[in-house]
Specification:
The protein is of the alpha+beta class and 382 residues long. It has twelve helices and 14 strands. The strands form three sheets. Strands 9, 10, 11, 12, 13 and 14 form a six-stranded antiparallel sheet that branches. The two termini are 32 Å apart. The structure holds ligand 1OR (2 copies).
Length: 382
């Protein structure tokens, strides 16, 4: 077990990855005996060392070369039935987007409701106007009744779903015949069913409606034609960034994927203002490239530099954690690249990093006292 407070024991990335790989594999195959399966799994893993493992890790991009080859997956993760799904090879780089467009006509009212429902869907973030239009055209409404199963774990993927209304529970069964465990509840917003379509895997969880509700669905082909390429590109693009930010190590693979979907690239030129002290906060930033100067206007009225944030660092989280105006200003130093995370996605996705951020904020306070003599010289940051 890791003991972060001691600072001595660290969890190597490889351990994390291998254990995750094993867990997913076990959950998908659902063999009876864990130990027996583990012996077999790790033996195979050792034999296949030189070959690549199909990864559902870190930022989540499965290795594209693996996706596009006809080779057997090196790890016993896909059963025979799953291999047939796996054989539907896809290489986002080759995709020429020549599929037939599907259009479900909609009333103005429906269109409005749909637009509202998809507004916050992370996977749709990187779409341009035209792609977004195609997505809206391709979605169809599906009314569901309380108790209805939308997705069953282990099935092949058919649709991707965006929630308009209703409450939905997600369950995962860890062993065959075992009682599925409740892992998540969706309440009136969000989306599900993307994993099986993105990774050509069986459904990873069961989704059941708790109340009557309304969903917007998109078929597998349309999902893959429009979203696969851009989602892969984005996940790939942010894989390195997410790996380079120490704080984000606290996130699980699935959470990192969602984070990659949510990040938005922003560039700034030398001296440009990114955050203004006293403003309302709309999100936080990760530094992908370059550095950022943090300044505070103290009681004297002078603007003083108090900090520099470099590649792999983050800023602008304080106001989101404290729900106060910006405590400081931030300026670009040279030409820089940032990734922006809006407040809504922050609250949904960075819960697991909250402790680390709070610890860092304690540090701000100590520094504040050191630099300004006392905390009272400057507005309270909490
Ligand atoms: P899918 O196509 O596999 C089931 O169909 C959906 O449940 C899945 O896509 C996700 O959209 C959704 N792990 C895997 N899938 C999840 C999870 C989840 N939660 C929701 N889905 N975990 C819970 C994370 C809070 C990890 C459980 C081990
Ligand atoms: P924010 O949302 O308030 C400004 O917007 C950001 O500057 C803030 O979040 C932090 O992410 C970042 N005190 C306050 N904010 C700081 C500090 C800081 N450093 C970076 N930020 N101090 C410097 C500690 C070394 C203490 C003040 C002397």
């Amino acid at each position: 077990m890791s003991r972060p407070e001691s600072g001595k024991i660290t969890v190597p990335d490889e351990l994390r990855e291998v254990l995750l790989e094993f867990t997913i594999s076990y959950l998908l195959e659902q063999p009876g005996d864990v130990v027996e399966y583990a012996v077999e799994f790790f033996q195979k893993l050792k034999e296949n060392r030189s070959t690549q493992i199909i990864r559902l890790d870190t930022a989540g991009s499965p290795d594209e070369s693996v996706i596009s080859t006809e080779e057997e997956p090196p790890v016993a993760r896909f059963s025979t039935r799953r291999k047939s799904v796996f054989a539907e090879a896809y290489n986002p780089e080759d995709d020429e987007d020549d599929g037939e467009k599907v259009i479900y006509p909609k009333s103005d009212g429906q269109r409005q409701r749909l637009a509202d429902s998809v507004k916050h869907i992370l996977l749709f973030r990187s779409l341009d106007k035209e792609q977004m239009q195609d997505v809206l055209d391709a979605m169809f409404e599906k009314k569901v009744a309380a108790g209805e199963y939308i997705i069953r774990q282990g099935d092949d993927g058919d649709n991707f779903y965006v929630i308009e209304s209703g409450i939905y529970n997600a369950y995962v069964a860890t062993e065959p015949g075992a009682e599925p465990k409740h892992i998540h509840t969706y309440e009136n917003n969000g989306s599900f069913g993307e994993l099986a379509l993105l990774y050509n895997m069986p459904r990873a969880a069961t989704i059941q409606a708790v109340t009557d509700g309304s969903l917007w669905a998109m078929d597998r082909q349309t999902f893959r034609r429009i979203l696969l390429k851009s989602a892969f590109k984005k996940r790939k693009m942010y894989e390195t960034l997410i790996e380079s930010v120490p704080m984000l190590k606290a996130l699980q693979a699935y959470e990192r994927m969602n984070l990659a979907d949510a990040l938005v690239p922003r560039s700034y030129t030398d001296g440009e203002l990114i955050i203004k002290q006293g403003d309302q906060a709309d999100g936080m930033y990760f530094v992908e490239d370059g550095s950022v100067k943090i300044t505070i206007v103290g009681d004297s009225g002078h603007e003083v530099e108090i900090n520099r944030i470099n590649k792999g660092g983050y800023f602008g989280e304080l106001a989101l954690v404290t729900h106060k105006p910006r405590a400081a200003s931030a300026y670009a130093v040279g030409q820089i690249k940032l990734a922006f995370l809006d407040v809504e996605a922050f609250e949904r996705l960075l819960g697991p990093c909250m402790e680390i951020m709070k610890r860092n904020i304690d540090d701000y306070e100590d520094q504040l006292i050191r630099i300004f003599g006392s905390k009272s010289n400057i507005s309270d940051i909490r």
